[in-house]
Design goal:
By secondary structure, this protein is of the alpha+beta class. Helices cover 28% and strands 30% of the residues. The protein is built from nine helices and 17 strands.
Length: 331
């Protein structure tokens, strides 16, 4: 019986391009506008080094304007514009899947074809997990280094005052002061989402692909159980975003193949084994923060290392960072 081989169904370069396109277009992060594809990050991913610098200009200061007069001996003193830089960390990622030819023969279907159809969905989930891990690190770093000025914690209140709801979300957006209207999205744990559904706080709007997008009082809503949660205490952290609060880039490796197939004829005592390798270079970076390398066990940070507060330093003033965190309970 003839069996379609992995090398017959995948053209590596075309498949890699497909993965990159699907990951950018179908992840909820992209649809909500929380994470914005940054061409400069993608370009830098194809260069050498583990990280790269992104310089930026600071805003003009709010010094009082000069009071002019008619004395020719009194001259104005010009101010200057400041600058800074953010360090963006790259991650070099790989995942592979394999199947024995005999298993596909007996099943009457090709296991690798099914794997191939789910690779882009796998990378979508990985991107979302790496974003959530980075935001966990940013929140913890803000609490440690900036007196938690981006975090509203109401879990210590009593009764309804400690429960997630519209008023709590409004108060959390208020940590941005008069920039609170910059926030456009919210990520929440599924337990919080269920409560919001029961309270009729979730509305659904159509997207460009014929589906729907969940919104919370106009905020694009992402549900992810990777957000910090103490389920026994019923305490959960939600994250509020402004459009472009996070920049990201994806690129295939320069040297290694983005997609590579491997055939091991001798495996299974000659039955054969097929392996699909998928590689991506990734950078996800919250705007207004700089990566601090510190201790990294391997060549790229793991999810746990992205969530480590020691790796994130804020380089911009509070109002310039379109992020806020809400710690609340469920009823």
């Amino acid at each position: 019986m003839a069996v379609t081989r992995l090398t017959d169904i995948i053209e590596p370069q075309i498949f890699t391009d497909y993965i990159l396109q699907e990951t950018m277009q179908k992840t909820a992060l992209f649809q909500s506008g929380v994470a914005v594809n940054n061409p400069e990050i993608a370009r830098q991913l194809r260069a050498g080094a583990h990280a790269f610098n992104v310089p930026f200009w600071l805003d003009l200061g709010d010094d009082e304007a000069d009071i002019v007069n008619d004395d020719p001996e009194i001259h104005s003193t010009p101010s200057k514009i400041g600058s800074g830089k953010q360090i963006v960390r790259k991650s070099f990622l790989h995942k592979s899947w394999s199947a024995m030819n005999l298993a596909s023969e007996i099943a009457g279907d090709n296991a690798l074809q099914r794997i191939q159809s789910r690779v882009s969905a796998y990378w979508n989930r990985q991107m979302q997990r790496r974003l959530i891990a980075s935001l966990n690190g940013v929140m913890a770093g803000n609490t440690a280094n900036n007196d938690g000025d981006m975090v509203l914690d109401i879990t210590g209140a009593t009764g309804a005052a400690a429960v997630f709801g519209a008023e709590a979300v409004i108060d959390a957006t208020g940590t941005l002061g008069d920039s609170l209207s910059n926030l456009t999205g919210i990520a929440m744990h599924s337990a919080i989402y269920r409560q919001a559904l029961k309270n009729d706080l979730i509305e659904f709007i159509p997207d460009s692909q014929g589906g729907t997008i969940a919104t919370f009082r106009g905020l694009a809503t992402i549900v992810d159980d990777g957000l910090p949660a103490d389920t026994e205490a019923g305490e959960f952290t939600s994250v509020l975003f402004g459009a472009g609060a996070v920049g990201y880039g994806l690129a295939e490796p320069v040297i290694a193949e983005g997609t590579q197939t491997e055939d091991i004829p001798s495996a299974g005592r000659g039955g054969g084994q097929q392996i699909l390798h998928s590689r991506l270079n990734v950078a996800i970076h919250p705007a207004g923060f700089s990566w601090a390398e510190g201790d990294i066990a391997d060549e790229s940070p793991t999810l746990a290392e992205l969530a480590d507060p020691s790796h994130w330093l804020r380089t911009a003033e509070r109002k310039a960072v379109n992020l806020a965190f809400l710690k609340a309970k469920i009823a």
